[in-house]
Amino acid sequence: MSTTTAPRPPRALPPLMQLSEAAAERLRGLYAKGQEGKLLRVAVSTKGCSGMAYDLTWADAPGPGDEVVTDKGVTVLVDRKATLFLIGTTMDYEVKAMSAGFTFTNPNEKGRCGCGESFHV
């Protein structure tokens, strides 16, 4: 006797990248002041004691293979080489007593260096 099962629907992938409200608000401000017409590109570069670091640069337009991510009305670019490392990542903007900047919560990270500058997957 043969049994057949219906094929499972494909699992939904998490969004490539999401922005927190704080990150979206900060980017809106940057885009409005001085960076009008530019887009933030998020990449991953080889550096630091853990091997990889987030790299943020300004771009005039999407490059070949860039993923265009729009969340909360704000658009950022994800470098094609960083795509697999960033799936499911949330970009935030944090203000601390002595510093302020963008931070990343990346479910693909397996560890970070002691200073938090670099990570590995």
Written account of the structure:
It is a single chain. The protein is mainly beta. The chain has a single domain (21-107), classed as HesB-like domain (Hypothetical Protein Aq_1857, Chain: A, Sandwich), CATH 2.60.300. It has 2 helices and 9 strands. The protein has helices spanning 21-32, 83-86; strands at residues 17-19, 39-46, 52-59, 67-71, 74-78, 89-95, 100-105, 111-112, 119-120. The strands form 3 sheets. It has a 4-stranded mixed sheet. The chain has a 3-stranded mixed sheet with strand order 1-6-7. A two-stranded antiparallel sheet has the order 8-9. Strand 6 and strand 7 (100-105) form a beta hairpin. The longest helix is centred in the N-terminal third of the chain and has 12 residues, at 21-32. The radius of gyration is 17 Å and the shape is globular.
